[in-house]
From TrEMBL:
Major subcellular site: membrane
Membrane topology: Peripheral membrane protein
Organism phylogeny: Eukaryota, Sar, Alveolata, Apicomplexa, Aconoidasida
Name this protein carries in UniProt: ATP synthase F1, gamma subunit
Membrane-crossing segments per the record: none
Family listed: Belongs to the ATPase gamma chain family.
Domain of life: Eukaryota
GO molecular function: proton-transporting ATP synthase activity, rotational mechanism
A Pfam cross-reference name: ATP-synt
Location(s), subcellular: Membrane
Alphabetical list of PANTHER family matching this protein: ATP SYNTHASE GAMMA CHAIN, ATP SYNTHASE SUBUNIT GAMMA, MITOCHONDRIAL
């Protein structure tokens, strides 16, 4: 007759009780971490809600300014676009590219779309745009507006950058800010200038466009009487960056 082994029985009981204790401890730890996680998520929700309210108010303000200035800028931009259809630009001279981005990251491809198009032009690739595809400039200058365009292109095309204008949108964009940037670019007397920017359509959509300004042609017809501030019109339709 087999005798019961009390030592092995007690060992099994102790192991079962230990496992039960460990499971209860693990479950309590999970509940505690889960409650802390819920609290942190609620705190983040409060912060993001406040940020959304601030962003919405800034967006509405910029949209109101956009609507007010579009009555002045749209007819003039249409005139310059019709002039650009003429074969008036110098194909084998220097080309200045003004790339407009933001200082901080934005959702979607707001900054990357501008940098991709700008990179194609710097590497002489076709971009399916009649204004620039038939140009073969002997030298390209790059002006960056916004910190993101610098971080995207400085590694491969650092030598092309002339100047970077950042933190330009700390205050609402106005005529003085645009004039300051435009005048300093115009003082370099570039033969051809193109502007790469995101044309605002709605709060969730935009079109990356190329706006060209053929400076030589317009200076002939203005007879150097009017200051070349027409370039600021493209800055005024730039969508809000925050």
């Amino acid at each position: 007759m087999l005798k019961p082994n009390f030592s092995s029985f007690m060992t099994r009981c102790s192991m079962l009780s230990w496992n039960t204790v460990e499971k209860k401890k693990f479950a309590s730890d999970n509940l505690r971490s889960l409650s802390l996680r819920i609290k942190s998520v609620k705190s983040i929700q409060k912060i993001t809600k406040a940020m959304k309210m601030v962003a919405a108010s800034k967006f509405k303000g910029d949209q109101r300014r956009l609507e007010k200035c579009s009555n002045f800028s749209t007819p003039l931009v249409d005139v310059f676009n019709r002039l650009n259809k003429l074969d008036i630009h110098k194909k084998n001279e220097e080309l200045a590219i003004i790339a407009i981005s933001s200082d901080k990251g934005l959702c979607g491809s707001v900054n990357s779309s501008v940098s991709r198009l700008c990179k194609k032009l710097l590497e002489n690739e076709q971009v399916n745009n009649e204004l620039v595809d038939n140009i073969t400039p002997n030298k390209i200058y790059l002006y960056g507006i916004g910190e993101k365009i610098r971080s995207a292109l400085s590694r491969l095309h650092k030598d092309k950058f002339q100047v970077i204008y950042n933190e330009y949108n700390k205050i609402p964009i106005n005529f003085l800010t645009c004039s300051y940037i435009a005048e300093r670019i115009m003082n370099n007397n570039h033969s051809n200038i193109i502007i790469i920017y995101n044309h605002f359509k709605s709060a969730i959509s935009f079109d990356t466009q190329i706006l060209s300004k053929w400076i030589t042609y317009l200076k002939i017809y203005t007879n150097s009487i009017l200051p070349p501030y027409y370039i600021i019109l493209s800055f005024k339709i730039w969508p809000p960056s925050r």
